[in-house]
TrEMBL record:
A Pfam family assignment: OMP_b-brl
Name of the protein in question: Porin
Residues covered by the Outer membrane protein beta-barrel domain: 21-266
InterPro entries, per the entry: Beta-barrel_OMP (IPR027385), OMP-like (IPR051692), OMP/PagP_B-barrel (IPR011250)
High-level lineage: Bacteria, Pseudomonadati, Pseudomonadota, Alphaproteobacteria, Hyphomicrobiales
Any one cellular-component term (Gene Ontology): cell outer membrane
Keyword Iron among UniProt keywords: no
Species in which this protein is naturally found: Rhodopseudomonas palustris (strain BisA53)
Length: 275
């Protein structure tokens, strides 16, 4: 009887081991965290904002000691006379197109962006130097304009916290410019000569700034950005007086600070789950 009981116990143990061996091994499923947003992809967008000059415009009028000047001596100072004046603030608006790349395991973002827009900082001023006694009208008029068209091609470097992106950008820029000088005092005691000249061109320069962008969903994002346009420069342009004598005007433009808000639409770069 004892031998029968021992055999039954042994058989039960063997059967239990066999059944346990056939059962699947339990492993804990990995915990999936919320998807992490990825900024990679092409995008286009638009923006609006404002711009201000970082200083005054300055024009050195074509004046000098007689008899070198083409005007009567009574019309000239012994040295050149400067006009120094501020430019009006301006609305800006335009569009952007760009490409972002963010490695899937990184918070860093690399990209390029093109921007084309409109701005217009300008002013016309009457020479603060008094008109010679007895002469009606203005002595001279200076006019400056920075704009209307500008463009920027820049590299972007950013650091993303999921859907929030901080970035810096910098690169090349072009800005349209105009300047003019008009001297219309031709009534005694001024000389009968007048001068009317203008300059128009495009400045190639640099731009730098940065901003904050927030992804509303997988396609749309909003941004706020500051950008400095390095338009400050001094240049000269020549003109002929009414008596056909050549002259030169020296002009200095200020730099431009811009601030804008924008909306972008992006293709590519879906959210990525991290384990």
């Amino acid at each position: 009887m004892r031998h029968i009981l021992l055999g039954a116990v042994a058989l039960t143990a063997l059967c239990s081991s066999a059944v346990a061996a056939d059962l699947p091994v339990y492993t804990k499923a990995p915990v999936v965290v919320a998807p992490v947003f990825n900024w990679s992809g092409f995008y286009v967008g638009g923006f609006v904002g404002g711009a201000v000059a970082d200083g005054n415009a300055n024009s050195t009028e074509p004046r000098g000691a007689a008899p070198a000047a083409p005007f009567a001596p009574v019309f000239y100072n012994a040295t050149a006379f400067d006009n120094n004046y501020s430019l009006s603030n301006t609305f800006i608006g335009g569009g952007t197109i760009g490409l972002n790349y963010q490695p899937s395991a990184s918070n860093w973002l690399f990209g390029v962006e093109g921007e084309v827009g409109y701005l217009k900082l300008s002013r016309s001023v009457v020479d603060i130097n008094p008109v010679p006694a007895g002469a009606p009208g203005a002595d001279s008029i200076d006019r400056t304009r920075i704009g209307d068209l500008y463009g920027v091609f820049a590299a972007r470097l950013g650091y993303a916290f999921d859907r929030v992106l901080f970035y810096a950008k910098g690169g090349a820029a072009f800005v349209g410019k105009e300047a003019s000088f008009t001297d219309k005092c031709a009534v005694a005691p001024c000389s009968v000569n007048t001068l009317n000249t203008d300059y128009s061109g495009t400045q190639l320069t640099w731009a730098a700034g940065g901003g904050l962008e927030y992804a509303i969903n997988d396609s749309w994002s909003v941004k706020g950005e500051y950008l400095y346009l390095a338009t400050k420069e001094t240049y000269t342009y020549s003109a002929n007086a009414s008596n056909n004598q050549p002259y030169t005007v020296s002009h200095t433009d200020p730099g431009v600070h811009t601030g804008k808000i924008g909306l972008n639409y992006r293709w590519g770069g879906p959210a990525v789950g991290r384990y």
